[in-house]
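2024-03-11 09:14:02 INFO worker-7 job=invfold-0412 stage=load source=structure_tokens
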């Protein structure tokens, strides 16, 4: 995902080390990170960069860091909300939540309709069998966040 980042993962780490908190929190890089652990696997210093990116996302959310636009954090919040509710991403619901948060109601409407016609988006959500366990993970994360 580094091709879509404004700062490469190693630059994010360096900014964190040098106290460039505002620069990092207002960057797209922390939100673009897919947490795939590829950076960690390739890092010669064995830094878990995805864990750092996750922590930076949380800090940016708490501090309401300015990204210049609200699309990336709104997408992130919509994504997590969908996973918490259904145990997986319910794309149509996630996109509806995203559109409401960003007030971009009609943008991409035609594309969405095409996806529905071709059955690339499911109209109704599906829940996973272990939804309780997933919700417990979210509750533990919220409890940990409140205890900070």
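2024-03-11 09:14:09 INFO worker-7 stage=emit residues=148
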């Amino acid at each position: 995902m580094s091709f879509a980042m404004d700062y490469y993962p190693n630059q994010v780490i360096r900014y964190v080390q040098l106290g460039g908190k505002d620069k990092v929190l207002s960057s797209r890089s922390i939100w673009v990170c897919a947490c795939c652990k590829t950076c960690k696997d390739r890092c010669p210093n064995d830094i878990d960069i995805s864990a750092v990116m996750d922590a930076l996302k949380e800090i940016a959310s708490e501090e309401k860091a300015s990204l210049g636009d609200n699309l990336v954090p709104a997408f992130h919040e919509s994504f997590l909300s969908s996973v918490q509710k259904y145990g997986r991403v319910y794309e149509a619901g996630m996109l509806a939540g995203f559109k409401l948060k960003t007030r971009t109601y009609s943008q991409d409407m035609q594309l969405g309709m095409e996806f529905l016609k071709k059955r690339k988006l499911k109209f109704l959500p599906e829940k996973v069998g272990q939804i309780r366990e997933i919700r417990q993970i979210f509750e533990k994360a919220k409890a940990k966040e409140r205890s900070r």
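2024-03-11 09:14:09 INFO worker-7 stage=report msg="The longest helix spans residues 131-147."
2024-03-11 09:14:10 INFO worker-7 job finished
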